[in-house]
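To the structural biology subgroup,

Please find below the input and predicted structure for histidine kinase, which we are adding to the shared reference set this quarter. The sequence is reproduced verbatim from the submission form. If anyone notices a discrepancy with their own records, reply to this email rather than editing the shared folder directly, so we keep one authoritative version.
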Amino acid sequence: MMHAPGLFWSKLGVALDLTGAIALASLALWLWPRRNRFGDVGPGILCALAITALWCLAIAALPIGAPGRDLVTFAESARNLSWLVVIYQLFADDGRNSSLAPIRPVIYALVFVELLHFGIELSLSRVGMNEQVQRIAFEFNVMFRLLVTVGGLVLVHNLYAGASRDSRPALRWPTIGLAGLWAFDLNLYTIAYLAAHWPAEIAALRGLAAIALAGFFAMAAARNAEDLRIRPSRAVTFQTFSLLVIGFYLVAMVAVAQWLSYAGGNFARLIELAFLTLASAIALVVLPSRRVRGWLKVMLAKHFFQHRYDYREEWLRFTRTIGSGGAEAMPLGQRVVQAMADVTDSPAGLLLCPGEHGDLTLAARWNWNDIDIPAGAISAAATTFFERTNFITDLDDWRAQGHAAEREMSGGLTVPAWLLAETRAWALVPLVHYERLVGLVVLARPQMVRKFDWEDFDLLRVIGQQLASYLAENASQEALAEASRFDDFHRRIAFVMHDIKNLASQFSLLARNAELHAEKPEFRADMLVTLRASSEKLNALIARLSRYGNGAVDKLEEVAGEQVVRAVMQRFHARPQVVLTQCEPLAITANAHSLEQVLVHLVQNAIDASRPDSPVFVSLTADGLAARFEVIDAGSGMSPEFVRTRLFKPFVSTKSGGFGIGAFEARELVRAMRGRLDVESREGLGSRFVVRVPLAAPGRLVDPTIPEDQKVA
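Predicted structure (tokenized):
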């Protein structure tokens, strides 16, 4: 009596085989009036489907050991022969039966092997055999089946791989169905050969291959067969492929361990366990690594998908990154860098934006805090170049070509030395909005470095334009907010003017009454009270507004720069932390009062940002045709984003009760003196403010023929 597990597998096999026979027979009947959809191969496919249905029926009706089992062998041989004929007809339909010389001999050889196998199997079934002869006959039977299945798989592969691009859509589903049928047989007979007995549990599932064969041919016969495509998402493909790699690794690991247990002699168990431990440790370290994952993604995108990118997923990720908000969200500049870096799997990046003088300066950094960037990161000439060409620069190519790359660039782009020296810097992606460069993203080298292709360039340019629009919109919103703050400031000034007008009216009234009542003691007493009150109000108002002007200077004249510096030092003589490091005697063209006001503001800000024992250095030196005033501190410093977007914005102050226009007015005063105010700052390290104003007589500094007594003292 058959035991319970064997009975279960037997019933499951019968059910699957009957289902496969029904599916194949139904498909053959349905295709009969539609056989022209397969062209001249249609009748052969109908015949092969009918024979395969009979084979399934024979397996279901005649289990192993039942009388008439030879019918199953005959049905399987007929099935294989019919599909070999179909494959040859498909080659002939594509015109490759004559162009590919080995095809016909291979098919003839497989037909001969199949006929030989059936003849030997039929002969041996008529002769009584002992157990040893039966085992040898079983092995020969399995070997013949393996030869035919392997040959069939090779033919199916060449049928599809060698087809033209126009022919492949019609061959896609039939070749998948045949490959699945013979691939199942290959695994079945391989296990049977290695185990030296028939695996009934696996053989019970042969009906699944027949059902799949019917399904794939039904899809091939559908009217929209060319539009039917299996489109797994990239995430599912990557995870499935990763699981397959892990599975193959584990199977290989167990196989090698099993072999070591046989070959290890007395230490077999120890060697097996040591190998398993080492292999598991390697798997835990290597498989989760970013480099391996990056390699798998590149290989899958290259060989499994028509396009490198899943554009829907890229757009959703881009939207999530750039649109994230809330208190914990990163600043817009960092989100811009991250959105661009996610496309190429770059681990870090920088955002450079045009400064006041056209050169590109650091605006934001993402995961890249260990790189030192000069104040003028890239020259102003690059702005014009990127606006004209929208050129995505591969820095590895630039490093390889050297100066030859500069000659090839029509715009004369020069990549700065600090960027070429930084080996992590990989690519430059311009952000252009309406032919105006609003930013430049520097991408760090990913784990898996590859060459850019047309798809990379197209996607990076589109995302760059989108990011440029976000930055331009943000700048417009900030400009509107600044204009709104100016309107608010003007409204406040209107109240100040009203108070001044009232004071002026009081003074005018007091002056007129004084002409009439000046000799009266009572009037003189009231007049003193009124004058004292009005004077206090006016002084308070002046004290509030003394530091904030309109950025204009009354008069430019030749000024001794060292006298301005020493006047500033005199203002802070009670602060020993303010140190004058260098002071050259230089004659400059400026307004002494305005320049002193600027330096006082910068020094006071440096003191406020530093610890009481931290020095603030002040110096005056010549810098070409300009005088260079420096104020350096080792205080808290400022982020690039704050320097670029907030430091010189009016009405933005980090001090409690501050107006927020001190830095703004300082820069405007320097500009009014035809000078320039630059800032370099690092959070936690300190800041450097540099004021440059033109020299009054630059020729005296460079012409040695001028007598010493005529030089500016």
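Summary notes: Residues 224-230, 403-410, 699-713 have pLDDT under 50 and may be disordered. The chain has five domains: 8-230, 244-303, 316-476, 481-545, 557-710.

Regards,
Lab coordination
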